[in-house]
Amino acid sequence: MQLKITKIGFLYIFLTILLGISAINTGNNLLFVLVSFLLSFMLLSGWFAKLNLRWLQISFSFPEECYAQLPTLIKITLINHKKIIPSFLVKLEFQIKGSKDSSSYSTTFFLLEKNSEKILSILPLERGYNYLERVVIFSNFPFNFFVLKKYLKIKEKFLVFPKPMNCTDFSEEFIHPYRSEKPYLSGEGSGEFKEIKDYLPAVPKKYISWKHTARFEETIKIKSFSQEVINPVLINFEQFKVQDLEKKISCITYLILENLKKGIPTGLKINGKFFSPQVSHLHKFNMLKELALYERN
To answer: Omega of the bond prior to 142 within 30 degrees of 0, cis?
Structure first.
């Protein structure tokens, strides 16, 4: 822990010393009692300040998907392991550091009985792994005479995906149609109308045919649609004609997100690795991770 005396604390100490000198020079017992009271008050202030920061545990939760230069919400949990005594005015400071830049953040927990959570917005500055550093909790409780700081040994890292950027100044020569033995089909309800059939579990309500259901009172009827064949695409990183590396990675990130949002199976060829076109969440994560760590290892 590190102790820092505030301006009010310096004034309080100066007045205490001044009264102590006056008590010695005058021999006034009332002044001795007053100085003893002030010293005891200062001692109790330091003891409560130290107790206020003891037996506290902190944890950080980062989202699975966060992107460079875009606001990201993280959850901070502060747990008080003291059985009876709460903590007051606990302030938190920490740094998020990338490979080049870093940024500082702070928040305050006004009353901490058992545990408390805070949602804080951060702005990751660059892609790749970012690190949580210089975590410190401090407080000027109870009388603002001292600021007691406690440095925590917390080392965490989280992955930041590249910033998506909609690029319009490039040719699409790097995007190739992908041929597969097994066709990629869209979900139920995206093609042409086929027939009316009995209700099936987990079918969305928007497919219920109320007209036919009213005709057949005992059975709920739904509309059935055919599935469409979707043409998958493959993005070739090396053939992307953009000189600026970061812009290149950001453009490809945007294309991947937009294609997967539309349900288009998208693959990626990068750095000797091949990701065959899919639409799963894990597939998206693996491609974005490869882009985020490109030339960062």
So the answer is: yes
Alpha-carbon distance 259 to 241, whole Å? 20
In angstroms, the CA 113 to CA 10 distance is 31
On whether the CB atoms of residues 92 and 122 are closer than 8 A, the answer is no
pLDDT tens for residues 172-200? 656 655 555 454 444 554 555 556 766 55
Distance separating alpha carbons of residues 158 and 161, to the nearest angstrom: 10
Distance CA 185, CA 173 (A): 25
Residue 234 and residue 178 in contact, taking contact as beta carbons nearer than 8 Å: yes
232 φ/ψ angles, rounded to the nearest 5 degrees: -75, 160
The pairing of strands 266-270 and 233-236 is parallel
The token duo for 12 is 């309080």
Looking at 2.10.50.10, 3.30.70.2570, 2.60.40.10, 1.10.3720.10, the CATH number of the domain 1-160 comes to 2.60.40.10
Q: 10 Å Cβ neighbour count for 202?
A: 4
Contact yes or no for 265/277 (Cβ under 8 A): yes
Please, what is the average pLDDT of the chain?
84
Give the phi and the psi of residue 282 in degrees, each rounded to 5. -65, -40
Residue 110 in tokens: 């006004």
Domain boundaries, the chain: 1-160, 163-186+230-297, 187-227
Which tokens go with 284? 């998206």
* pLDDT, tens digit (0-9, with 9 covering 90-100), for 145-165: 889 999 998 889 999 999 999
How many Cβ atoms from other residues are within 10 Å of residue 246's Cβ? 15
DSSP 20: H
